[in-house]
Design goal:
The chain folds into two domains: 31 residues, no CATH class; 33 residues. By secondary structure, it is mainly alpha-helical. The chain is 75% helix and 0% strand.
Length: 81
């Protein structure tokens, strides 16, 4: 029953291919290059407070992703052998 619900959810929530390319290919580079580019062009003002939270946010997102990854691995049938 649960497996059927998961399959139905994945069918209903399809992301268009163009959006996948933008989200996984273009957007990360934009975030990665923005502040170094400002620094190289000498247009860097004092950093906004939100940008100072970026390293912590990255670490938190990595920790959450690792936790989800481990949980999903444990729930796989052949992993615990």
């Amino acid at each position: 029953m649960l497996q059927m619900k998961r399959q139905n959810l994945s069918k209903n929530f399809r992301v268009p291919a163009a959006a996948q390319v933008i989200i996984t290919g273009v957007l990360p580079y934009a975030f990665l290059a923005y502040y170094p580019t400002l620094r190289l062009l000498d247009k860097m003002k004092p950093p906004p407070p939100l940008s100072l939270a970026a390293p912590r946010t990255g670490r938190a997102a990595t920790a959450v992703a690792a936790r989800v990854w481990r949980r999903r691995l444990i729930s796989r049938p052949g992993i615990r052998s």
